[in-house]
Design goal:
This protein has about 230 residues and is an alpha/beta fold. The chain contains seven helices and eleven strands. It has a single domain, classed as Spore Coat Polysaccharide Biosynthesis Protein SpsA, Chain A, CATH 3.90.550.
Amino acid sequence: MSTTKVIVLIPAAGLGRRMGASVHKQYLSLQGRPVLAHTLSIFEHHPRIDRIYIIAPADQIDYCRDDIVIPGGFRKVCGILAGGAERQDSVRLGLLGCGADENDIVLIHDGVRPLFDGDCLDSVLRAVEIQGSCVVGVPVKDTIKVVQNGCAVETPERGRLWAAQTPQGFRYQKILAAHLAAERQGYCGTDDASLLEWQGEVVPVVEGDYRNIKITTPEDLLVAEVFLNAKEG
C-alpha cells in the first residue's frame, strides 16, 4: 500500500487591485459564499486529497480560519501558513511549512480559481506519478501578438500556444528544489512550472477547461456566477 500523500497548497494572498473592491478578491461573495470557500470545496471533497494548506497574509490568518475554514467545515485544511511578498515567495514558504515527504505529490492551486473541475484531478495526479510534474492548461482561442512600445512586432503560431492554469502538480522534492534554487539565484518565474522549465525540464500538460477562470476583475466574478448557475441548473 502506497504511503504517498497528496497535499494541496492554496496561495490566497491576492490584493485584488484590478477588482476595485475593498475586500480581497478571495473573500468576495460568489453565490453567497466566499470565493476561497468554493475553491477549498473542490479539494475537500476529492478522495485522493490528504491535506490542504492555505497560504495567506499573516494579518489575515485569523479571519481565514474563523470566517472561512471553521464555518465551512473544511476538515482537510491542516493549517494556514503566512505568505511572503510575492506569490513565488508564498509558495516557497508553503512548501517549507507543509511537512511533506520528498516523494509526496504537491498540488498548487490559485485561491481565486473556484471553478476547477475536480474530475480532472485524477489525470493530473496520474501525470505527476509517472513524470514528476504536470500543468493544467487550455489551447488559446485568440491570435496572440507580441507587442513592443505599443506596436505588434510578432504573431506566434497559435497552435503552439496554451494558456496555463492551476492546479499544477509536482513531486515535493522536485518543486521544493526548484523554488530554493530560484530564491538563491534571484529568478522570478511566472508560475511554478516555469521554475522547472528554467532548469531545463519539460513539464507535461493536461488539458483543462475554459471555465477554470481566475477571478481577477469584476467581470470575472459575473462570469463565474453564470458558470455556477449553469452547472447547478
